[in-house]
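User: Sorry, what's this?
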Amino acid sequence: MESKKLTQEELNNLQDLQSAFTKAKISVGELEIQKEGIITNIKSIKSKFVQLEQELIKKYGDQSVINLQTGEVTEKKE
């Protein structure tokens, strides 16, 4: 069988597409790593929130409502 060869333009196009595909896959991997870091950070924030919430409930009672703008603590209206 006769050996065939791509034209230089075809080879360049193919190599460019392969390179772009590889870069895109690397970007997805980097984003996944960032995502995991953010998820870990969110879990840490949630844990700290729960801890503070328990401290505030202990201090002000579980029927308290805290205004996050002013810090005012009032009783829950039923």
The radius of gyration is 29 Å. Residues 46 and 72 are 22 Å apart (CA to CA). Residues 8-60 form the longest helix (53 residues). The chain has a mean pLDDT of 95.
